[in-house]
Design goal:
The complex is a heterodimer of chains A (392) and B (188). Chain A is of the alpha/beta class. Chain A has helices at 3-20, 33-47, 65-73, 77-84, 88-96, 159-174, 186-195, 212-221, 260-264, 280-292, 312-319, and strands at 102-108, 111-118, 121-129, 137-143, 146-152, 178-183, 198-204, 223-230, 249-252, 270-273, 301-308, 326-328, 337-339, 345-347, 354-358, 363-373, 379-389. Chain A has three domains: 1-57, no CATH class; 68-176, no CATH class; 241-389, no CATH class. In chain A, strand 7 (198-204), helix 8 and strand 8 (223-230) form a beta-alpha-beta unit. Chain B has 188 residues and is mainly α. Classes of the chains: A alpha/beta (392), B mainly alpha (188).
């Protein structure tokens, strides 16, 4: 082989290397010398798998403990995880360090992923992905101002079980609780109830809940401190819920079972009900109770999507019966946004007319909404009800 | 102090390694001290460079040596290999009186020596160099797979750890039994 052939072969290999590039520091777009060496090392290992085992060894565990810990402190989040998984001793060492607390988020977009973020550095996310892959590898991507570092790991054939184990491991090593979980499978509900019954954010994906009992377990055994999202459920029996849900912010799809007493007897500050069966008369009852002041004292925002056979004016009359709201054409200081939870501020739709109801304590409830004709007959009613205090 | 005397006599004190003289030398003449490692080669190092080492700095402060006394009694570091001590001295000279940069390009590149260097730096209490060395150690596993990390850092598996622990217990038991037997023999 001529030197030119060799050169060509290496050029091609470098080209492949570029495509297979597993970790590029995109945060600052600087290509470090170490990156070059690492890629060369990967290239050599791919080309000569047997003869290219790393030659340099470093007996890390023989270092004095303080020095050993200082070395480990220089690892990034994904490397700490990999190191702590190597053995019980490695895990014990990793646990000796007081890591900055992590925001741990389980599952997103239906994938068996764990997203990790330091609250002080939200622009950088480390993602452990347990999708079936041949071997563990790293990947980085720049999405807007956010850098995502991925670690794709091989699972043992059951990604959800591996996700649970990995989450427990990460929580233990970093001494951080899970902040958010998206439930994609029923077994995750049983697991989270046992592992961490108090959780800030809980989302249950569509059709995960297939029995009334599971829903009861969630409301009885779990405490969601920020926002609870329940997507459509598929149960053979009709759900009948009598006890109010004690979570501060709730978004419920297919909410046919969410009745007036559940709204009135709860302490929720945000209630968002989709595909509801509440009638204009029910809504009138809710508004009246709010105005009386004994109930719904914590309410900040209520959103209801329902259907009705009434026409616009008849529907409005029914909703505001004996309430005598004032119609307002201007904003008059009403906030344009609602904080659904600590992370999500919802911008309210711009409307021409708002109907205001006032309470004896000076609070105002602004009602606004829209109608849409449905093909199957009837009308869809979308109502927003915002509680706010008029500044003097 | 016998090792020190051997060090100075056997290791050509006439040709010690010195720090490069800077163009703008301070008006007050700088004092120099002498150190040697396992190979007994004596290194002449300025007090300014040695300030990086909390250990040596403490020794100097406590001993109150004159330059003649310091020359006659180099600090012995028998537990540090000569080439490692040379690296440390070089680094101290390069960083004499300078603020340490966030990324140090003057770190020794020989990774095979990194373990001994880390131990030496830790012993000599050179905080900044230790920080850089620890970063280098962490860099060794950048982008590596779990098995590569295990291999590079020589992390035993749980089974290997358990076997080693059993072996250590066995050995300790045997040693204890031997000591008991010896004590009984002495008593007789």
């Amino acid at each position: 082989m001529s030197s030119r052939d060799t050169e060509m072969e290496f050029s091609q290999l470098f080209g492949q290397l570029d495509i297979q590039n597993k970790e590029i520091n995109l945060s600052n777009m600087i290509f470090h010398e170490d990156d070059v060496f690492r890629q060369l090392n990967e290239l050599i290992q791919t080309t000569f798998p047997e003869s290219s085992k790393p030659k340099i060894r470093f007996p890390l565990l023989k270092l004095p403990q303080l020095v050993l810990l200082e070395c480990i402190e220089n690892l990034d989040v994904l490397e700490i995880i990999l190191f702590s998984l190597l053995s019980k001793r490695a895990k014990t060492i990793a646990k000796l360090i007081r890591w900055n607390p992590l925001d741990i988020q389980l599952g997103s977009d239906g994938k068996p992923q764990i997203q990790l973020r330091y609250s002080l550095n939200p622009g950088r996310t480390w993602i452990t992905d347990l999708e079936l892959s041949e071997y563990p590898y790293y990947q980085s991507s720049l999405v807007g101002p956010t850098v995502n570092h991925y670690l794709f790991m091989k699972n043992n054939g059951n990604a959800i079980e591996d996700l649970k184990q990995m989450a427990e491991h990460i929580c233990e090593v970093f001494r951080s609780p899970i902040r958010e979980i998206t439930i994609v499978e029923q077994s995750l509900i049983d697991w989270i109830i046992k592992f961490q019954p108090t959780i800030p954010y809980l989302t249950i994906e569509k059709d995960v809940i297939t029995s009334v009992g599971t829903l009861d377990c969630i409301f009885e055994d779990l405490k969601v401190t920020k926002h609870f999202v329940l997507n459509s459920i598929r149960t053979p029996k009709k759900i009948q819920c009598t006890e109010p849900i004690s979570f501060p912010s709730i978004s419920i799809h297919n909410s046919y079972w969410f009745t007036v007493p559940l709204i009135l007897n709860g302490n929720n500050s945000i209630i968002r009900l989709y595909e509801s069966k509440l009638t204009p008369k029910d809504i009138n009852t809710i508004l009246k109770e709010w105005q009386k002041g004994a109930k719904l004292q914590n309410l900040k925002y209520l959103e209801i999507q329902t259907t009705t056979h009434l026409y616009d004016n008849d529907c409005s009359d029914e909703i505001f019966k004996y309430l005598y709201p004032t119609s307002v054409h201007r904003n008059e200081g009403r906030p344009k946004t609602v904080s659904i939870d600590d992370e999500w501020t919802y911008t309210l739709p711009e409307v021409v007319v708002v109907h205001n109801i006032t309470r004896s304590d000076g609070m105002t409830l602004s009602v606004f909404g829209s109608f849409r004709d449905l093909k199957r007959g009837g009308r869809e009613l979308f109502l927003g009800m915002q509680v706010w205090h008029k500044q003097p | 102090m016998s090792s020190t005397e051997q060090g100075t006599s056997s290791a050509a004190p006439a040709e010690p390694t010195t720090a490069p003289e800077s163009a703008a030398a301070p008006e007050v003449p700088e004092s120099f001290y002498y150190v040697h490692g396992k190979d007994k080669v004596v290194h002449k190092v300025s007090a300014g460079a040695l300030q990086h080492s909390a250990l040596i700095h403490g020794m100097i402060s406590n001993l109150g040596y004159t330059e003649e006394q310091a020359k006659a009694n180099p600090f012995p570091f028998e537990n540090i290999d000569g080439d490692i001590l040379q690296m440390v001295v070089d680094w101290c000279n390069q960083h004499k009186g300078k603020p340490t940069p966030p990324e140090d390009t003057n770190l020794p590149k020989q990774k095979e020596k990194l373990f001994d260097l880390v131990l030496a730096v830790n012993y000599l209490e050179i905080k900044e160099l230790l920080t850089y060395c620890c970063k280098q150690v962490a860099m060794m596993v950048k982008g590596k797979s779990p098995e590569e990390i295990r291999e590079i850092w020589m992390i035993p598996t749980d089974a290997e750890d358990e076997a080693a622990e059993k072996e250590a217990k066995k050995r300790a038991g045997k040693e204890a039994a031997g000591e008991t037997a010896a004590a009984a023999g002495d008593a007789k």
